Each structure stands twice: as structure tokens, then as C-alpha cells.
Input
Amino acid sequence: MRHNKKFNHLGRTASHRNAMLANMACSLIMHKRITTTLAKAKALKKYVEPLITRSKDDTTNSRRVVFRYLQDKVAVSELYKTVAPKVGDRPGGYTRVIKLGTRQGDAAQIAFIELVDFDENMAKTEKTAKKTRRSRRSTGKKDETAKVENSVETADATEAVSAEAAPKEVSEEKAQDEKAAE
Output
């Protein structure tokens, strides 16, 4: 009976499958995203997520357990130095599998698997409010002239405010200087 033997064997022997998953896990940890077939990506997800959970606890024993699976010192140190601190507060779901379509040669389903917290494009950021245009004018010379007119109006308004605060004699001198400049 094959009770509780549901994982995908990927058409390989046990030793070949373990070596392949260990290599793919090292590549995922080092590069943060890899492209592979959908079946391998799903198998890798089940393989690497317990290792990332184990890496949250930085003890000698947990490092030895992770090294037993990965067999790569550089990948283990990268996992503990960069990946574990970034996912420390996440309760699970450290990887994301996104389907890309089919491969040209053999029509295999292709997907990429990535570490969730390392993708800047999908990271949750504050959305800036998009400014909507109310007028139907195109963005051309008209908008540039409108901007110039608005800047002139604001300059006049600031001069008016400063003129009210200043004595009348000074404001009259400014008005005469402006007329002379025009």
C-alpha cells in the first residue's frame, strides 16, 4: 500500500531527485528566482520552505540540518544572513510559483519560483494617488501657456501680499520699477 506517499517523484530515482532538488534550492537561495518546469517548481516549494522555516532559528543544530539538505556552505550562509532576517516575521509561504506558459520544444509547462520578500515589483508599497485631468485639452502648448499664466498669477499674488505688509511708498517704487522693466 502507498499510504501517505503523495509527492511527485519527477521520473527520477530517489538519489537523483534529492540531488536535483538540493541544487535547485541552492540556486533559488542564491538568485532569489529561478525558471523551471511547473512540476519541479511545486516539488521545490515543498522542499525549500521547511528549510527556510528552519533558518529562522540560527543555532548550530539547525545549520547542520539545513546543510544536510543543501550540501553547499555558501547557500547555507546566504540563507541565514539575508533570507532568514527578511522573512523572520512571515508565518509561512516564503515562495511564489507563477506560471509562464509552455516551452517551445516539448510543450512542458514553464513557471518561475521566487522568494516572496525579495521581489520589488510585487512588494506592497504605498500607492500614490493618480491625478486625474478634468479638462479635455491635449497636453501641448496650451498646457504650457496655462502653467506660465498660473505662475504669473501666483507671483502677482505674492507681490500683493508683500505689498500690503510693506509701507505704501515702497510699494509705489516697486510698481514704477516694474513699469520701467516692461
User: Anything to note?
Assistant: The beta strands are 33-37, 95-102, 109-115. The radius of gyration is 32 Å.
